[in-house]
Amino acid sequence: MSDQKRGMHGIWSGRWTFILAATGSAVGLGNLWKFPYITGENGGGAFVLVYLACIFAAGIPVMLAEVLLGRKTRMSPINAMAKMTEDTGAPKFFHGIGWMGAISGFFILSFYSVIAGWSLAYILKLAGGDFTGSDAAFAGETFGNLVSDPVGLTIWHSVFMLLTGVVIARGVNKGLEAALKILMPVLFVLLLILFGYSLTLSGFGQGLHFLFDFDFSKLTGESFVVALGHAFFTLSLGMGAIMAYGAYMPQEQSLGKTILWVGVLDTLVALVAGMVIFAIVFSNGLEPSAGPGLMFQTLPLAFGSMAGGEFFGTVFFILVAIAAWSSAISIAEPAVAWAVEKGFSRIGATAAVCGFAWLLGLGTVLSFNDWAEYKLFGKTFFDTLDFLTANIMLPLGGLLIAVFVGWFASSELVKKEANIENEAVFNAWRFVVRYISPAAVCVIFLHGLGLFN
User: Fold this and answer.
1) Which pLDDT tens digit goes with each residue over 324-377?
2) Would you give the distance in Å from CA 278 to the centre of its chain?
């Protein structure tokens, strides 16, 4: 790989820019519609402790390893792994880490854009007062009408993909950095506004109990697997996004402290979002749920029945859209960076990646309506892509990254690039990434395939 390709994309202006970028990648729909619910259902505070242990045992060590590879090479994940595989003399199949990450990110972008488009539609619905005084039947019918309309879904899918492409096309500093310096502070401010609002609600205390009461009786073997899986996936590992962002990180920054900040911020956003969501749900006597049902039926119904619901509901869905937007930007970046290194202009590369992802996304659009009955092994087109990426490609990518950095990259190279000054801390991380993280990811992988329960 020629030296001209090193650092050709740009460098973040500082440590906090990378923290904002990586946090933006990590904070997504999973923080808002999955984490709060699985916490409450698996023992509240007891599950949070397990989750934090998983973050430190699997998430952060693998994240540090992935960032390390990006910063060492200053290349896209595809070319980074090609160079590192060659330099270390590792088996050539490790080169596939970069390709698998970029492809999985491309697949995820295709359906993530469709789902994120729903949040854009709901901003207008809440702002327009559609749910004011509504009932559960209306909330369900509204969501059903949205997903059953392929034309409407395509329009919102197109708008969201265009928003993502505009940011990426402007480059690392004028595009990604400039956007994230605005999006992430706005996300934090909106979350704090909603948290302040939730403190005034009658269901805030009940929401706290649902999330944080220590109920160890609810902890099962499945709970540990769920915690492990979410800890891994919430940090956007295995898809090349974090490796690509690491390639733009200033050389003098300590990776360990920086990655810790990302893990802390990502977890705080998930917990605060949970307190907000369940304060609203319990204040209206509704049952907590997970996934689209919580986000697009239960919460709009709640906002429609409370004072100031139009305003706070609109703010909430703007928050959802920003979280999805910041994640989508990072998901698309690895493929775009590789195309730029192949000689495409930044604008041309972005148009190609986002254009093809948009086209593939039409399969997800149709999965909810015209193609709903067409299934492969019991799964729709959307479910197939979701299963393939979440249960196979991402954990396999994370596993290979941990094995590569732990066993094939020299201790000297890793120590120099990680810039961890404390010898004991470095040795502990090296041990974890060699033994603990691969074992943890294997559990996720086997469970996702239905081979381990």
Assistant:
1) 999 999 999 999 999 999 999 999 999 999 999 999 999 999 999 999 999 988
2) 21
Other Cβ atoms less than 10 A from the Cβ of 38: the count is 18
Contact (Cβ atoms closer than 8 angstroms) between residue 229 and residue 444: yes
- If you write DSSP's letter for every residue of 229-272 in order, what string do you get? HHHHHHTTTTSSHHHHHHTTS-TTS-HHHHHHHHHHHHHHHHHH
* Structural Rg of the chain based on CA atoms: 21
Question: Which of 188, 29, 197, 195 lies closest to 120, judged by CA?
Answer: 29
Q: CATH classification of 3-448 is 1.20.1740.10, yes or no?
A: yes
With a CB cutoff of 8 Å and minimum separation 6, the contacts of 20 are: 180, 181, 184, 185
C-alpha to C-alpha distance for 202 and 75, rounded to whole angstroms: 52
Whether the model clears a pTM of 0.85, i.e. scores above it, the answer is: yes
What b-and-e string marks burial along 304-328, b requiring 16 or more CB atoms within 10 Å of the CB?
bbbeebbebbbbbbbbbbbbbbbbb
Q: Would you say 42 and 209 are in contact if contact means Cβ atoms under 8 Å apart? A: no
Averaged pLDDT score across all residues of the chain = 91
